[in-house]
Amino acid sequence: MPEFQFTNNWFADVRGVWDQLIPQLKPAKILEVGSYEGQSTCYLIKTLSQFFPLEIHCIDTWEGGVEHQADGFVEADMNAVEARFASNMKLATRNAPNPVVVSCHKGFSDIELAKLLVGNKKNYFDFIYIDGSHQAPDVLCDAVLSFRLLRVGGVIAFDDYLWAEELPRGIDPIRCPKPAIDAFTNIYCRKVRIISAPLYQLYVRKVSD
To answer: Which of 30, 129, 134, 170 is 20 to 30 A distant from 36 in Cα terms?
Structure first.
């Protein structure tokens, strides 16, 4: 019997929180910014498709981020990563008790999120998972555009809230998600509420447009 193809265990760090949060939220319309091999996508399909049909949109360049590159060398074979994502989606959707539609948007998140907005997806999604670029300007752009796509009552999950890239000269605050996430939650403080959870990730609920 075919098995999922994952080459890392990054998702294990947050699975315990998702085991409690996702069954409570029960999102049917989901957006992911950054999908890699689809480990979180497969989890959502397995956990939620037992209740109802799902619509999941996945945005990724499948080119790797700045932290995956050094002197022009890409740490992972991103063509292979993309192939594993496609294989994992086929397996997950085939085994789902209810129909699951996975739409892939290959490209940079600012462009693909904007396309969703002009494609009548404003206030559309129940749950948005932001795990794409870790560069602060990109994360802030992802957050602002995702807020427009999220329905009131929906939740955004920001991955790697406390992550920092190890650099020879120390931590560069612009190459970390936290400053961007903090800026977003401060500016949108009247429109979102932070959900209490371990700070490996930060979760916010949209309370108004």
So the answer is: 170
**What is the per-residue pLDDT across 142-191, written as a single tens digit (0 to 9) for each?**
999 999 999 999 999 999 999 988 888 888 989 999 999 999 999 999 99
Residue 162, sorted as left (phi over 0), alpha (psi -120 to 50) or beta, turns out to be alpha
CB contact set of 202 (below 8 Å; sequence gap of 6+): 157, 158, 161, 181, 185, 194
Lookup: tokens for 12: 């294990």
CATH code of residue 92 = 3.40.50.150
Q: 133-155: string of b/e by CB count within 10 Å (b at 16+)?
A: bbbbebbbbbbbbbbbbbbeebb
Is there a domain that residue 127 lies in?
yes
Host domain of residue 51: 12-21+29-206
Q: Is residue 186 part of a domain?
A: yes
For residue 102, give both structure tokens: 């996975």
Within-domain flag for 123:
yes
pTM for the full predicted model: 0.93
Q: Which of 127, 176, 177 shows the shortest CA–CA distance to 150?
A: 127
Amino acid at position 166, single letter: E
